[in-house]
Amino acid sequence: MNTMTELHLVPYPAEVSFTEGSFFLPEEGSFSDKTEDSLYRSCLPETVRGVCWILPKTEQEGDAPEGSYRLSIRPEGLEIEGTEQGIFYAGQTLRQLLVQFGGELPCLEIRDWPRFAYRGFMLDSSRHFLPKEDVKKLLDAAAAMRLNKFHWHLTDDQGWRIEISKHPELTGKGARRGRAMFADLPEPEESAGYFSREDIREIISYAAERFIDIVPELEIPGHESALLFSCPELRCENADGEPKVQINGGIFKELLCAGNEKTYPFIEEILDEYMELFPYPYIHLGGDEAVKAHWRSCPRCQAKMHALGLKDENAMQQWMVRCFADYLRKHGRHAVVWNEVLRGEALPTDIVVQMWHGDADLGGEFAERGGRIIHSSTDAYYLDYPYFVTDVSKILNFDPVPEYLKNSEQSVFGIEAPLWTERVVDLDRAAFQLFPRLPAVAERAWSPEKACGPDTFFSRYTGLQGILEEMGLRGAPEKYWKISEADKAEEFEEYERITKTPHMLRFIEEQERVLQEEIRVYGRF
Ligand code: ACM
Ligand code: ZN
Question: Which of the four CATH numbers 3.40.50.880, 1.25.40.10, 3.40.50.970, 3.30.379.10 does domain 15-112 have?
Answer without folding.
Answer: 3.30.379.10
